[in-house]
């Protein structure tokens, strides 16, 4: 997207949709700081620091209680490793969860607590890490997630994970998950609170680490790619930033127009961080969404 150019419907934005207005419809009128604010989830959620601290503390406890499956390399990088939380039954389904952080912060261990609900429900959970920007380009990060899925397909059975895979991701992780819907081992994708068009990101402070190219924007934006005819549920919180709400709705609309299976799942009252709490209990909304995806994929 050229600097100062407002997004159009052709680039994946649907103007006039119900709910909060998409600020990117008036992109040319926004300065650099205002454009960055469209994606600043931490600033948009008043208690984000408290939520993150609670998440990290709960995850540290869960991580420490499951020491046998941690830090298992799938590639040679310092961060390219899995934390595995296998179910008692090796043939149980597995949720692969890709963390977020705008491709440049956070770690898989920070999200360990969100394996709890699925583990209690009898599922395995696998959480891959990946190299962060600017050490890695976004295209390299995408390739690492593909390598992680390849590794799990080949070596998961020896680690007690040999069931069908639902791939999930949150925030930047949702973009990474959406790009791998076509992977042979993936039965479906649960994309949560994601960014699905990268063009506006290039005109924000986030691009200082990413340095996005035209090719990356065209090839790594789910809203700019052909639709994969496998199930994808697209979840977002009703309290999310409008840019993320519209990206979720636009991706679902794109897929619906191509008759691809999958639901749009607005989570009432949830913000960008609290939405993941629906993974904490076996009856949580996101746990149920993963189950529904697996059932849909098997039909």
From TrEMBL:
- Tell me the protein's name: Alpha/beta hydrolase
User: What UniProt keywords are attached to this protein's entry?
Assistant: Hydrolase
Q: Does the keyword Hydrolase apply?
A: yes
Query: Where does the record place the BD-FAE-like domain?
Result: 88-180
InterPro entries noted in UniProt: AB_hydrolase_fold, BD-FAE-like_dom, GDXG_lipolytic_enzyme
Coiled coil ranges (UniProt) are none
Gene Ontology MF: a single term: hydrolase activity
State whether keyword Hydrolase applies.
Answer: yes
